[in-house]
Automatic annotation (TrEMBL):
Residues 8-91, 87-183 form the Yippee domain. GO terms for molecular function: metal ion binding. Belongs to the yippee family. The keyword Heme does not apply. The keyword Zinc applies. PANTHER family: PROTEIN YIPPEE-LIKE CG15309-RELATED. This is Yippee domain-containing protein. It comes from Camellia sinensis. InterPro entries: Yippee, Yippee/Mis18/Cereblon, Yippee_fam.
Amino acid sequence: MGEITGNPTYSCRNCRIPVALGDDLLSKSFVAKSGQAYMFAHAMNVVLGYKEDRELLSGVFTVCEVRCSKCGEELGWKYIRAYNPRQMYKEGSSEVFGAEFVGLMAEELGRNGRAFLFSHAMNIVVGPKEDRNLMTGLHTVADIYCADCREVLGWKYERAYEASQKYKEGKFILEKSKIVKENW
């Protein structure tokens, strides 16, 4: 574990970027395919994969894979939906990381702080492409704007120059400070 301003952090074991705060640790009593896993209320510097139904030890869940935003290392999964009512406490923002990936081991950072990686976006306008040197390396990106008010919401990854970042191509970053959840 590292520390960010006095708060212990859990980091990717591969590249050491912080992925969770100690205050967000909910449980160390989970099991992943490779052994012990930790459940967190929130994560940072991660990207999320596609949703899929997966049979886990405690039942069937809709989950999406969680990867490190810097190096692409698979860290674990995020619970989206529990089909068993007794498991619904896991739904939402809980991420489970294999213990071998965290500790002494998605969200991205946008221009204005935390941001989310989406595979699809709607009601947007895509601006011109430009090369931009981001925290995770050089990318060709295009700013994305709200189709209604033209506010910059984030960007679209058009091209990643590093092999470990190729999974972002064609996906959208929406900055948390620019969006709100509705009808959830």
